């Protein structure tokens, strides 16, 4: 029994090391994962127990399962415009088969309603991380510039074998690490300026101009 327990523990440790390696191989160190900084993660549909939490729990054995008609969408909303280098999705055709995404299209919003395709891929029985490099939208001017937006829409247009629903095991969103401080300060500055503009200084009510209206005659 002792040897059996040790063998199970050893296999578990080896499996965890393998998973960690799979995660680390998707990032060369120049990027940082910003999915946890999003204000909202919204799914077009989901089976009970297979929603956003399973999509973001760093566990490759869990997954989001849609429950509706394609396209199946994942909408990610940030507090302010932020630079986004790429989106990575983990898929496993060996297990998911007809649930595996086949055609993936990613939109970036350039306005409240206007959106533009910034990445499009057709997959063939993928196993592992799929990297979706994002291009700048037309309003940015420079095509070589990193995409900057506050809203992404990741669309699974179709699945393998004409499957109705889809499985996505994990999603990671990466931003240039060098822009971390710039992004944080710009978002903070924006919020700070809005707060200053919208707030009222109570000391202003003690001025002569205000005191002349302190009573009705």
Structure notes:
The chain is of the alpha+beta class and 217 residues long. It has one domain: Sandwich (Jelly Rolls), CATH 2.60.120.260. It has helices at residues 2-24, 52-55, 93-96, 180-198, 208-211; strands at residues 31-33, 40-43, 64-65, 72-84, 86-92, 101-109, 115-122, 127-133, 147-159, 167-168, 170-176. It has a five-stranded antiparallel β-sheet. It has a four-stranded antiparallel β-sheet with strand order 1-11-5-8. It starts with a helix and ends in a 6-residue tail after the last helix. The model is unreliable at 1-6 and 190-200 (pLDDT under 50).
SSE diagram, text form:
Layout: H1 2-24, E1 31-33, E2 40-43, H2 52-55, E3 64-65, E4 72-84, E5 86-92, H3 93-96, E6 101-109, E7 115-122, E8 127-133, E9 147-159, E10 167-168, E11 170-176, H4 180-198, H5 208-211
Antiparallel strand pairs: 1-11, 2-4, 3-10, 4-9, 5-8, 5-11, 6-7, 6-9
CATH architecture label name = Sandwich
What is the helix/strand order? Answer: HEEHEEEHEEEEEEHH
- Gap from first CA to last CA: 93 Å
The CATH first-level class comes to: Mainly Beta
How many distinct beta strands? 11
Strand order of the largest sheet: 2-4-9-6-7
Number of distinct helices: 5
Shape: globular
Summed up, the domain count is 1
Helix content: 10-25%
CATH H-level homologous superfamily name: Galactose-binding domain-like
Oligomer: single chain
State which percent range the strand residues make up. 25-35%
Whole-number average pLDDT?
81
Which structural class matches the secondary elements? alpha+beta
The main pleated sheet reads as:
5 strands, antiparallel
Low-confidence stretches: 1-6, 190-200
Radius of gyration: 23 Å
The CATH topology assignment is Jelly Rolls
Region (Disordered): 11-30
Biased composition (Basic and acidic residues): 11-26
GO biological process, one term: anaphase-promoting complex-dependent catabolic process
Family: Belongs to the APC10 family.
